[in-house]
Input
Amino acid sequence: MIAALLLSFAVLLCVGVPVAIALGGASLLYIVLEGTTPHLVVIYRMMAGVDSFPLLAIPFFIMAGSLMNSAGITERIYDFAMALVGWLKGGLGHVNVVGSVIFAGMSGTAVADAGGLGNIEIRAMRDHGYDVDFAVGITGASSTVGPIIPPSLPLVIYGVMANASIGQLFAAGLLPGLFMAATMMAMVAWYAHVRGFNADAVFSWAVLAHTSKRAFLPLMTPVLLIGGMTTGVFTPTEAAIAATAYALFLGMVVYRTLTWRGLIRVSMETIETTAIVLLIVAGASIFGYIITTTRVTDEIATLVLSVTSEPWAVLMLVNIFLLIVGCFMETIAAITILVPVLLPLMEKIGVDPVHFGIIMVLNLMIGLLTPPVGMVLYILARVANISFERTTKACAPFLIPLVISLLVVTYWPEMVLFLPNYFYR
Output
């Protein structure tokens, strides 16, 4: 029966059925064939899956990122990053990474970074004579920092599915995100040395002060969110509302760059994206319910542990599996499907759920840069006006710092858990 469930799900995906419908359809087929469970369980479990307070963060984080892009706030961030690190050799490569780190503290999604800030970065690097492949590669790699540094939409989904503290997950992502940025900047420095890249700006305290003044209010967004969560002023879910309200305030009141027409467009895009995400969560809820109640998760854990019981080897196998899954499955769908399957295995080998959350999301972020489903690749191909194949090839070298970061995050849990332990435990 479980084979029929998995096979029908795989067939539906292969014929192009949307993930949410494939999940729900395969689950309904299982219940019909199994014969003892009422069919209405499908509806009840799907409703229960989306009846979660933390999921309210989804539309607000999506909207906050879109508002930042539409209101021109990303340009202020870029100018500040240019004044801050543009004087280094390979300056615009470093600007690319620093800009993504700052934007990560506002949007929480890689797609918003690649589509908004990436458009500015690639155009500027082309104008300064950088090879388009280098520009696309570092833009794609730096965008993956977005869902690691808080706030993070994938971590919200993981927290709901794993019943883990979203506040602790947000705190856990900060140091790994900064480490990722450091490894990417190191690779940019290596490229600058090998290819003879020069600085793209002259350091000036006056320019830094001017750009800091222009970007001061946007730069306060991460401070507002992280400070509010750590001091208990608002929960991580409420932080998403605060981010949206702040972005709306900057765009319509302070800078007045966001029109009513633009607000309506952003709102409709947010509704559409939110509906897709919640439908996937609903479909995965009934799918996960069946997987759990049939004790398939215990069988998988037993199978893996029969191969090896060494935690480091189990983590390596899980990483390889998640990297493969990331090539073929969208992030939110992968999290909702695999958390009920893999989390019991992680608990058996003593891996903290918060630690595993960062491992899982980082694996799936790498998947955004791998074909055939890598969403960031499609966005960058459109932004840079180059082929998908060339985009994939351009991003391939920058998988190196991401894989190094993944290994460090996997086998150095103290770095991941330091801030959660400090603030929450």
Remarks:
- The first helix runs from residue 2 to 14.
